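Please check this today:
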Amino acid sequence: MATKTDSDPRYRSLLQKAVRRGHVGLVYTISAFIESLGSKQKDWYRTRTVITTFEECWPLGGELNFNRKFHSKVAALINVTRAKKKRDAVGLAHLAFALSKGDSTVYSGTPADRDIKIIANAIRRPDDFWQWVTTRINTRQDTGLIENALRFRHEGSPCEQAAIQAAAYLMLSGKVPSDPESQAAEENFPYWVVFDKTTREGNLVLRDVARTLHIQLPQLEWVCHYFDGSKTNGDVYSSWWNRLCDWHFQKVGLRPEEAHLLWKPAREQVLSTLAADARRIQNEMYRWKLSNLKRIESLKRQVELFIEHYKEVQRGQKKLFE
């Protein structure tokens, strides 16, 4: 049976955008709300936590320290929310997924094409890929991420599973970025960004605006995602994410340096048309928050204790090897 979060994509989009933009308080609220919906929604949340972690900040895949308690999943997502984003895994995964479907335009004629080919083959032959990963894991000490990648390799859609494969590959390749301090989110969350092409409301509005302004729909969908939907509270330079974006611009027939000229007038119409939907979901979450302050605060305390305990364990393990 479909869960409420499956039947209402607004929740999935809201959670993802709040994490991506670094809105910790909103992540606590929507997480507590999803918990209140029942056990099926908790299972959905677990899967989304795994996928969001590997896509938005792939090195944190090594810190998916879940137990049977719901707050352990929220803790993982809060860590991603607070962090600067590192999106090489999702960039490499989407390029490889396109190649696995026969789209050779992802190639650029550089040595990095080899990495795309490897992950595309991993998508086609996942058992062989994970067997290869298993043979390599015994030669390393920093095995947390790879063990979690193996543990969660069946989570999500095939393209989302590819992000987990890409993260394991990047770890084995030693391509782990530094871990800079997190960056505070903007003061106000723009609720209109919830309504992208994955939601019924957003899909309809984008189609209407594209028709009104005589814009190709794929171009409008992409610039909406590029300029606002994928916006973060700060990120680390990700060559694979940048390459994915360049490839998307090429696919929709836009020059990156000119894309803002298309998005600026379209954005005004999109915001205006989605204003009522944005107010509706904002008021919905605000009313629920006011009625469930104790529940949210309890979840927050559980999460913060869980994170602090995890940090203490990590510090203790480091001392053992000093």
Summary: Residues 259-291 form the longest helix (33 residues).
